[in-house]
């Protein structure tokens, strides 16, 4: 009997751990994260079906970065103006198309030490059993503006279903709340890397 | 028996309070309090919700509720709108330093208040009929430093405050938004000296 209870608890724990599992970020070991005091955020690319996803996620990510209070974020207006002047041909996917030279030039002009680029991979409601839950999936990278290299990368996917099977603990029902949670987790992961 | 009832009620109250407050996060990004009688202008909220007029509604709620506060002075929304049009400032969330300077000098303001609406909708529900969901972020920008000195994220759903059988649930997105704006304004107000 004790053995059965033990096994059930282990399965339950494993399931809970799977649903809470975070993604391991890529961190360039040569990078000095204490150096990043002011950063810029590029509007994220959109690979999802929601046309407004990029605006929502970029706005939410900037807010969450500011909430960590560990960084200064360049004014989006000035930053976009400088970016547009440097990236003459419009690029639809900055995550894969931004070159090292461009990152260095933008950094110099906008007076930022790092540039966040990202993409929204999934954004919407998905059916899970009888209910619909939000699904948000992002990939975010930080370019170092001195070397033009990627120094940090984080990939995250979260679905708003229950954290434990059967019980509805920790469910997230709204896409707005899920966006905030995903962006918060990403911003905190970066903040942790800088400490 | 009495003790048990009190314990049960306290626990229930705690759960309800947790449900009402867990979806709001705000951060003051500077140490000092802001001087009393500072002048604030609200810029139109960016509407990313896809719901028509959601931006205008939330901007109007903020303007109306903040005007009542006596810790700061609000500029007339008409004057702000006029300057935005005159200087062709189209986006409140993509402001440049030069635009902040223009707004500051023309409106004689110390702070700019703005934000983005991520969600403003009502969903069908078998028990409650409609469940509204509202999500927005907002920030207070210091015109001198051009930095965001306070930021906040608000997410809420109409059934969050439901006690039982729909009691306590909010049925409309407008009602829910108005409640959330009230809380946001309380927090902004606490940043300023009396």
Describe this structure in words.
The complex is a heterodimer of chains A (195) and B (194). Chain A is of the alpha/beta class and 195 residues long. Chain A has a single domain, classed as ABC-type transport auxiliary lipoprotein component (Rossmann fold, 3-Layer(aba) Sandwich). Chain A is 41% helix and 25% strand. Chain A contains 6 helices and 7 strands; from the N terminus they run αβββαβαααβββα. Chain A has helices spanning 2-20, 53-68, 76-86, 94-97, 100-110, 175-193; strands at 26-27, 38-41, 45-46, 72-73, 114-128, 131-144, 150-159. In chain A, strands 1, 2, 3, 4, 5, 6 and 7 form a 7-stranded mixed beta sheet that branches. In chain A, strand 5 (114-128) and strand 6 form a beta hairpin. The radius of gyration of chain A is 19 Å and the shape is globular. Residues 16-20 of chain A have low confidence and may be disordered. Chain B is an alpha/beta fold. Chain B has one domain (25-189): ABC-type transport auxiliary lipoprotein component (Rossmann fold), CATH 3.40.50. Chain B is 38% helix and 28% strand. Chain B contains 5 helices and 7 strands, in the order H-E-E-E-H-E-H-H-E-E-E-H. In chain B, strands 1, 2, 3, 4, 5, 6 and 7 form a 7-stranded mixed beta sheet that branches. In chain B, strand 5 (111-125) and strand 6 (129-142) form a beta hairpin. In chain B, helix 2 (54-68) crosses helix 5 (173-189). The N and C termini of chain B lie far apart (46 Å). In chain B, 40% of the residues are buried. The model of chain B is unreliable at 17-22 (pLDDT under 50).
């Amino acid at each position: 009997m004790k053995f059965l209870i033990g096994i059930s608890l282990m399965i339950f724990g494993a399931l809970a751990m799977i649903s809470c599992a975070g993604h391991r970020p890529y961190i360039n070991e040569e990078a000095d994260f204490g150096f990043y005091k002011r950063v810029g955020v590029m509007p994220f690319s959109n690979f999802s079906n929601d046309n407004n996803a990029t605006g929502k996620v970029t706005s939410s990510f900037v807010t969450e970065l500011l909430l960590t209070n560990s960084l200064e974020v360049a004014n989006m207006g000035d930053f976009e103006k400088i970016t547009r002047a440097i990236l003459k041909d419009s690029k639809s996917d900055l995550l894969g198309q931004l070159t090292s030279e461009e990152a260095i030039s933008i950094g110099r002009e906008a007076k930022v030490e790092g540039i966040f680029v990202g993409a929204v991979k999934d954004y919407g409601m998905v059916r899970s059993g009888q209910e619909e839950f939000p699904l948000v999936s992002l990939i975010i990278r930080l370019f170092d503006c001195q070397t033009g290299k990627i120094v940090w990368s984080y990939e995250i996917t979260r679905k708003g279903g229950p954290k434990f099977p059967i019980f509805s603990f920790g469910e997230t029902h709204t896409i707005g709340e899920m966006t905030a949670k995903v962006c918060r987790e990403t911003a905190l992961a970066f903040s942790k890397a800088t400490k | 028996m009495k003790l048990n009832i009190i314990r049960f009620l306290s626990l229930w109250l705690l759960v309800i309070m947790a449900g009402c407050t867990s979806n709001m996060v705000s951060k003051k990004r500077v140490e000092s309090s802001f001087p009393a009688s500072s002048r604030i202008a609200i810029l139109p909220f960016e509407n990313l919700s896809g719901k028509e007029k959601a931006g205008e509604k939330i901007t109007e709620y903020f303007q109306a509720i903040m005007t009542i506060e006596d810790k700061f002075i609000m500029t007339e929304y008409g004057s702000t709108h006029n300057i935005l049009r005159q200087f062709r400032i189209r986006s409140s969330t993509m402001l440049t330093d030069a635009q902040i300077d223009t707004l500051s000098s023309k409106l004689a303001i110390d702070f700019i208040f703005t934000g983005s609406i991520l969600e403003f909708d009502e969903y069908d529900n078998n028990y409650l009929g409609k469940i509204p969901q509202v999500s927005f972020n907002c920030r207070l920008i210091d015109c001198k430093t051009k930095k965001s000195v306070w930021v906040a994220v608000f997410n809420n759903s109409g059934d969050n405050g439901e006690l039982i059988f729909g009691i306590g649930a909010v049925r409309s997105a407008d009602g829910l938004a108005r409640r959330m704006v009230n809380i946001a304004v309380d927090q902004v107000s606490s940043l300023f000296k009396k």
